[in-house]
Amino acid sequence: MVPAVLMLAFFAVPYAAESFNCNNGAISDTVRSTYLDYHNKARRNVAKGIEPNKTGTLNPAKNMYKLVSKAKRF
């Protein structure tokens, strides 16, 4: 399962609705969007209480927000 997810993260070409405005050319906006979408899906599963663990599922979250990414220089 994990290798399939990693392959999707590297080879999937999702539609990036917005630019991340990041000057680092090492990672494209498409890859950033893929990672952000995957991470938000995992967070959504935790928030809903449907993420599996060793004894069943994790308890649902009470206050978990969707992540958004805006690259900024510090």
TrEMBL record:
This is SCP domain-containing protein. Keywords: Signal. It comes from the Eukaryota. The lineage of its organism: Eukaryota, Metazoa, Ecdysozoa, Nematoda, Chromadorea. InterPro entries: CAP_sf. Gene3D superfamilies: CAP. Residues 1-19 form the signal peptide.
